[in-house]
Structure formats: structure tokens, C-alpha cells
Amino acid sequence: MSKEKICVFSYRDFDEAEYFTRISQELNIELIICRENITKDNFHLAKGCTAISILTTLIDDSLMKELHDIGIKVISTRSIGFDHIDLKAAQKYNMHICNASYPTNGVADYAIMLMMMAARNMKRIMERAAIQDFSLPGLQGRELPKLTVGIIGAGRIGQTVIKHLSGFGNPILVFDKYQSDEVKKYARYVEFDELIAQSDIISLHAPLTEENHHMINAQTIAKMKDKVIIVNTARGGLIDSDALINAIENGKIGAAGLDVVEDEFGLYYNDLKSQPLTNRHLAILRNYPNVIVTPHMAFYTDNDVHDMVYSSLKGCLLEAAGEKNPWRVFPK
């Protein structure tokens, strides 16, 4: 039986390699490996393959055309989100797009961790302790169970956040297009405007679409409670960064926990300590004492990395075989 050839870009030796080696053997796949992000300078490495596996690298119309011209039919991203891939270009070039899945506990618990750290001023506590400043002024926190938490987006991850958060006893509000009886055991569905007006903490768990781009903006922030806490482990584009910065500086937003920011492509997962930071919003946000910024790490557990590799490779195989693929996101 001949092996399917898949070109893997952004291949990481320090965590993914063992899974790629084992899973490719199990699935009878030949891997073409590139440790760099896919670009117009290296896409040709995929020639002879029908599918590629990438991370959150921007795939625009021009790069999609190049891939189409060398015979690529499937692009699989090792992430749940796929907003870095131009779906209009995918339609133009008849490209199938797949994403990855992984257990929801990692991201869900990370979001709750950010809520707790933001509510307890943990960034300031740790920064002071690091320079042996053990004073108390400015560090008094808020007790999590007394805060109303608003969850925007109750998909798999959002539902796990709700279930885990229910153990703290918080009032939980939820906004989502689709309602679930399971969610109703722990939370109350409300309209968007009610959620942002009544929540002490707002946590984002929605995919990024054209419709919800910058759903957190100057107008919606104005409707929120004073000193509201914003947590985002979903996609940076859900928040208007300029509006967020203004609201932090004028005190409307009391704290934020951000695992994602706008325009993070090309920054996260790279060692840039000797270079100027080109994302000005990120440069500003990471310096506020009441803003925790982490580099898109919420997913990063051993279980999740394994499942991302498996679902990416398996999805490519299913597409090649013309079989039903649960990881296909385009065309639906």
C-alpha cells in the first residue's frame, strides 16, 4: 500500500516531533518536513504532495494560488481557529480546508486561570515580589465567586468553561446563537447587550468571523460595568485594540487577561528578543500592570499537542480518500 505524502510546515522538534513520528507510522504517511513557516520561498517543498499541514501562518490568495498550481488540494491547520486562511481564495482554487481538534480542558482552565489572576491583581503581586516589594497598597483583589461572569460563545470550549466555573458558584450569563440544555444547568442565556451590561468578567470563546470582528469596541465597552475584566483566549480580532487601550487608560476596564491579540501572525512562537516589537498594540498592552498578556499558550498541553498532530494528519488522509472528514471546515 503506497504512502500518502504530506508536507508539514512549522514543524517543531521540541514538542511535536515525537507525535509526528509515531502517528505518521501508525497512519502510513510519508512526511516532508519544513521547520519554518510556509512562505513563497519554501512552499515548493510540498510539490508531489496533495496536502499540507500548517500552524497559524497567513495563507492569502497569492500563496493559495502557488499551492494550487503545484497540486495541493488540502490545507490542514493544527489549530481550532482558521481565520488565518483566506476562505474566498480557497473557494476560487477549490481547496479543502481542515482544522484540528483537541480536548477543551486546556483552554477552558487557562481562561479561568486568567480570570482569577486578573481579579486578584496577580501580575502586580508577582512583579513586586520579584523586586522584594512586599507592600500591600494597590493589591487588594476581588473574590471570584462574587463576580458575574459573561461567556460569549458556548461551543465546546465555552461549555467547558461554564461547567468548570460553576464549581465556584458564580452567576454565569451566556450569549450564543444556539442554546443547549446542558448549559442551562449552570448558566442563563441572555442577549448580548444584557451580558455586557451585567457582567463583572467577560470571557470570549467565539470564532472570529466578519460579523463579530471587533465585537468588543468603544460602543460596547461604554455599556459595560466600570472596572470590568476582559478575558480573551479565542481570537485577537474580536477586540478593537485601540478601544481596549483607551478603556484601560481611562479606568473603564479594570483588568484584562489576553492570550491572543490582533495581528499576532509572525510574532508568537518566535524568539524575537533581539528585535523591535512590530505590533504596537502588543507593545503597549504588555506594559500595563493590570493586563496579563501571554503568547497564545492556552492550548499548550501534552494532550492537546498530540491531538492537534493526529487530527491534522488524519484529516488529510480522509480528504485524500474522499471519506467524511469531521475536521473539514471548508467547503462545508
UniProtKB/TrEMBL annotation:
<feature type="domain" description="D-isomer specific 2-hydroxyacid dehydrogenase catalytic">
    <location>
        <begin position="23"/>
        <end position="326"/>
    </location>
</feature>
<dbReference type="Pfam" id="PF02826">
    <property type="entry name" value="2-Hacid_dh_C"/>
</dbReference>
<dbReference type="InterPro" id="IPR058205">
    <property type="entry name" value="D-LDH-like"/>
</dbReference>
<dbReference type="GO" id="GO:0008720">
    <property type="term" value="F:D-lactate dehydrogenase (NAD+) activity"/>
</dbReference>
<keyword id="KW-0560">Oxidoreductase</keyword>
<dbReference type="InterPro" id="IPR029753">
    <property type="entry name" value="D-isomer_DH_CS"/>
</dbReference>
<dbReference type="InterPro" id="IPR006140">
    <property type="entry name" value="D-isomer_DH_NAD-bd"/>
</dbReference>
<feature type="domain" description="D-isomer specific 2-hydroxyacid dehydrogenase NAD-binding">
    <location>
        <begin position="112"/>
        <end position="298"/>
    </location>
</feature>
<dbReference type="GO" id="GO:0051287">
    <property type="term" value="F:NAD binding"/>
</dbReference>
<keyword id="KW-0520">NAD</keyword>
<comment type="similarity">
    <text>Belongs to the D-isomer specific 2-hydroxyacid dehydrogenase family.</text>
</comment>
<protein>
    <submittedName>
        <fullName>D-lactate dehydrogenase</fullName>
        <ecNumber>1.1.1.28</ecNumber>
    </submittedName>
</protein>
<dbReference type="InterPro" id="IPR036291">
    <property type="entry name" value="NAD(P)-bd_dom_sf"/>
</dbReference>
<dbReference type="Pfam" id="PF00389">
    <property type="entry name" value="2-Hacid_dh"/>
</dbReference>
<dbReference type="InterPro" id="IPR029752">
    <property type="entry name" value="D-isomer_DH_CS1"/>
</dbReference>
<dbReference type="InterPro" id="IPR006139">
    <property type="entry name" value="D-isomer_2_OHA_DH_cat_dom"/>
</dbReference>
